[in-house]
# Entry
Amino acid sequence: MITPDFASRPLCRDWVISETSDRWARAGRRFAHEFFTDELGWSIQAGAPITSELPQQIRQSALGSLDRRVVLWQVDQDHFQLAAAAIAQTHLSRPGDLQIAALDEITFLSQTALSETGIVASIRHPEQLPRLGRMIR
# Structure
């Protein structure tokens, strides 16, 4: 699921990834050359599984910055409610950020509910990141 209006917005160079391992951060680094073909820099801030404090930490990390970022959330069924709340809070405080859900065995109903929280794309496998390139570039 992709929200088309993000394709025309400015480039996202900073990434924040919330996950329990380093799977998605490695994928972001692996595919970064496909997103950024110029010489300007980009950064990936990874780690920090979803907690109730995470949305506040993400907001604080962006204080003073108007730049749009990619925020990638690893979402599983066990932490779905916490993830949905974190995504919605981040969307309210940073509506320009491109939020992506990396889904890990969640129900169709939960996936549908996530679309109402500010997620602009959902993926299940790291190899799907390049198809989001148009939105990120």
Notes: The CA atoms of residues 59 and 90 lie 7 Å apart.
